[in-house]
Amino acid sequence: MLLDQLADAGLPTDGVLVDLVEREQALASFGGALRRLPMADRGRSVYVSKMITAAAAGLFDAALNYLWNETVRELRRRVTGYDLAYFFDIAVPSHDRRKHLSTEDDLVKVNDIDLLRAAREIGLLSATGHAQIDHIRYMRNYASAAHPNQVELTGMQLAAWLETCVRQVITLPYDTVTAETGRLLANIKTDQLDPGDVKSTTAFFEDLPRDRADALGAGLFGLYTNASRTPIVANNVLMLWPELWPEISEDARQRFGVQYGRFRASADTAQARAAKELLNLVDGGAYLPEHERAAEMDSVLDDLLAAHHGYSNFHTEPAPARALAALVGQYGNIPQAVENKYVLALVEVFLGNEYGVSWAAATSYDKLLDKLTSSQAGRALRSFTEPVISAQLWASKPQARWDTLLDVIEPKLTARADRELFQAVRTFTGTPDKLPSDSKIARLVEAPRVRRVVRRTKAK
Known about the structure:
The chain contains 26 helices and no strands. By secondary structure, the protein is mainly alpha-helical.
């Protein structure tokens, strides 16, 4: 009847409606998927009704579009019931966009890809469910009535996708981690944590998969840097942050540093200050932007040298030594602007003075030396040419530490000039403070530093 009316109007009829066999198969299969949908959830599933109606009429592409609308609506409902602020922090990492998102009505501003990704990262979708739902999203974009296409859909496909929506979105229960995280986020916004309960409250952090730890880290970071945070939230985050930090990935830590830099660049002073407070709390200075690290490292080096040169240096060196180690970080990245000053200062404090070395700071110095690059090790080797270093090397205790320094840097020296200089220094028969006066060593110090190239023998 309908097709006849279209034909009478001169409109196309071929390929407009799916044949009756496919429609019957779809309607027969929908029942199995619907049996998984609780009666309490059916009353709000208006797009499921429209999907089935469109399928019965033979408009499978429209049915798929309605199914996607239902999927997105249910995901947004789950997000709203879980934690909107947490979701926005994960879905929209851009501070400029994030600051305009706060209410349920703002969920429409998050595109479908980010909606699915963030839902997976905070645990509202499983990894398997994310893959399956993302496939439906792809098909919706390329095979539904949302866009012109020539793709033919089957009734079995529609029924399978409906079942996926029901199982992976509408009725999927929270896993343990998601439930624990949700309770934690709800509690820290309203109740002050008891410091004595922090360990038990955060015990589940150790069981967090890395991506979930990163997501929770981003959530706590967002809560603390929010300009409208309450004192309760701030205090609670400060107690939780050090417990979560060991579980957060290196990539996520770098992103926190980048976010701090963006706060600074956009003159969001309060948020920049809050971000830096969190990084400082976990000795995360290594994740600050390079220009910021260079300035801070320069200041800390001044403090360290002042302590080293001052009275009672054995007691005053450890604090700036630890601050320096925190800025250098796990991977030993030194801003180029302070690299020479850093290497020379490290050698100076490592050698100590005629009374010895500050043993409370020595562990920091040992770790920092281990992180020197080949180029920096070459600079450390040549440090005896600096008057401040050669002046230390007349005493027996700095001389012994000099030998230890050579042991540490030897494996790091890859340039031929460095290796030759090292051998000359090692075989020098005088005391180390006389090294600058040796003519052979003086020539080797000035030799061009070219890294050794290992040539592989070609197979014959």
